[in-house]
Amino acid sequence: MTLARSHPYLCHVVPKDKSPSSTGYSPSFTDSIDSPNVIPSGPREQTSASSQLTRLSSSSSKRNEVKVVACFGYHPWFVHRYTLHDTPPDKSTHYRSLFLSHKPTTTQKQLLDTLLPYLPDPIPFRPLLNGVRANIERCLKNGKLVMLGEVGLDGQARLRWPSEARHLYVEKSSMEGVWNDLKDQTKSGGNDETRRGQDDDEEWKRLTPFKTVLSHQRAILDAQLELAVELGINVSLHSVAAPGPTAEALLALKKKHGKHFTHRVNVDLHSAGGWSPSFWTQTAKNLPNLYASPSILITGRSISAPDLIRSISPDKLLVESDSHDVRLSGQLVWAACVWIASCRSWRLEGSTPPTTGVRGKEQNTGSKWGSETGKESENKERENDRTVDPTEPYETDGDEVWTVRQLERNWRRFMKLDE
Ligand SMILES: [Zn+2]
Questions:
Q1: Using 50, 70 and 90 to split pLDDT, how confident is the model at 419?
Q2: 356 domain residue, yes or no
Q3: Any idea which of 55-59, 206-210, 233-237, 281-285 has the lowest mean pLDDT?
């Protein structure tokens, strides 16, 4: 096992959307379930929480300590449940404003009317935001690392068909017209058919065509971002199919708060949000506090991802798994490191020297992180230690950058750990 491979120093962990804890952070995230592009609708699914798992290394006595950074916030998949009115409107008014605001079809109107009894009453968001504030302030008071997140915008997420209305899905599916209209929209990445047989014992997962209007998502996001600026904490930002609106939200915050935002609050666009390389470059120019953490599972879906990785400033790259399964975190973070190293032509700790004629440092010095061709015993000793000290200067061979240490230094800068 290489040293770097055993060193999952940062991964983004997705929330469990079935049994949220009252604190918004569940330590049982190891068995969390993620449903990309699905807005849960059940009453058990009212909060979102995510966590950043990191194994930090430093020269302090806390060396090699595993730390979890709690994150508090409301994810865009859930925000249809909340109203910004202190006195909630009735269900019909609320959901119509969220789901039927843009040229709804007759079928969609009928479907919403049908499902309305099974949707939860809207909940005022202000008290929930106060809860987020209280959680964050408690962490800060106790000297714990804390972030806002995941929060963000999602242009693709669709309301999950309420499990209590499961019988209606079956009935509707036999109705010509309704089914024809819905069947394309209820596919979930082609997985529905394969899931169909599994769902008897698992959580009901079907989608409606309803997406929460972006203006509502933005209002919920803005309220939470204001809190991050006020409290000076970082943000884990979800952005799917919404690069323009996401950038607008961040730039509006910069316009309003200036350096109070850009120099106090770092923002991680997790999995790089599916942004195009050119859009990233253009936006990052104006937002010096914007980082991105590519992942194999999500970022890797895009054909332009390698170009995106190359377009991100080396000091703004983070890395994540973006997997619900924490058991895969080490492998996925390592895979992302390998990928980033490949895209950027960076050296990779623990790997054999490139064969492109560039001489690896371990060949003449017995690199601390290199293959076991040099000082084997020293390497093994350090492998057992399983840490990389990011406070050490980068080991470079000419202009080469060592991936793990570069990413870890970025993480420390992002989290302001050395300030
Ligand atoms: Zn996300």
A1: confident
A2: no
A3: 55-59
The DSSP annotation for 42-103 comes to: SGGG---EEEEEEE---SSTTTT-EEEEEEE---GGGGGGEESSSSPPPHHHHHHHHHSSS-
Torsion of the alpha carbons at 51, 414, 143 and 389, rounded to the nearest 10: 100
Q: Please determine, for residue 228, whether its predicted confidence score (pLDDT) is greater than 90.
A: yes
Q: How many whole angstroms from 4 Cα to the centroid of ligand 1?
A: 25
Other CB atoms within a 10 A radius of the CB of residue 197 amount to 8
Residue 25 reports pLDDT greater than 90: no
The CA 36 to ligand 1 mean position distance, Å, reads: 8
Residue 363: CB atoms within 10 A of its CB come to 14
Please determine, for residue 102, whether its predicted confidence score (pLDDT) is greater than 80: yes
Residue 307 CA to residue 303 CA, distance in Å, equals: 9
Per residue in 374-417, pLDDT tens? 344 444 444 334 344 444 444 455 568 999 999 999 999 999 98
Name the packing angle between helices 106-115 and 91-99 (round to 10°). Answer: 140
Query: Hey, how many other C-beta atoms are within 10 angstroms of the C-beta on 125?
Result: 22
CB-side neighbour CA atoms (13 Å) of 306: 8
% of the chain beyond a pLDDT of 90: 57
What is the total count of domains within the chain? 1
Residue 60 CA, ligand 1 centroid: distance in Å: 32
User: Which CATH number goes with the domain that contains 325?
Assistant: 3.20.20
Give the C-alpha distances (Å, rounded to integers) separating 193 from 3, 18, 170, 337, 386.
Answer: 42, 22, 14, 34, 43
Pairing of strands 267-270, 234-240: parallel
Two tokens, residue 97: 């404003």
In terms of Cα–Cα distance, which of 99, 399, 73 is closest to 268? Answer: 73
Least confident of 25-29, 111-115, 155-159, 335-339: 25-29
Query: Would 95 be classed as within a structural domain?
Result: yes
- If you measure from the C-alpha of residue 142 to the centroid of ligand 1, how many angstroms do you get, rounded to a whole number? 27
Q: State the distance from the centre of ligand 1 to the C-alpha of 273, rounded, in angstroms.
A: 8
The domain in which residue 205 lies consists of 7-187+199-346+404-415
Which phi and psi angles does 391 have, rounded to 5°? -80, -15
Separation of 177 CA from ligand 1 center, angstroms?
A: 34
